[in-house]
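Fold it.
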Amino acid sequence: MQERCPDCRPRFTAILPNYKRVFSGWSRTWHGGTATIKPFRGEKVHGAIYEVTEACMKQLDKHEVGYIRMNVTVFDEDNQPHQAVTYIKSGQLEEALPSREYAAVIKQGYRDWGIG
């Protein structure tokens, strides 16, 4: 996130209820499926919240080709709701395994945020 949006500010970890993270499609860059979320009752996605500028959002929109921006309500560790934005795949929705390298990047992000 810091590479794509240097002015962003890390804020807190959060949970998105009734969704699950999946890997789908095929990335030429990563040689495997890439992450997205899909509605799934009873599941939850753990993630991190950043404060970003509108200029940063435009930069992210350019980078996230094949994804669309979606407004969601997430909950912090005190179960307080917050409005957030995420990106979901707009195509290539068939599930596919991620490459080891891509999975390692995702896992490192979780470790960096202390998400277990």
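The domain at 9-106 is CATH 3.10.490.10 (Hypothetical upf0131 protein ytfp).
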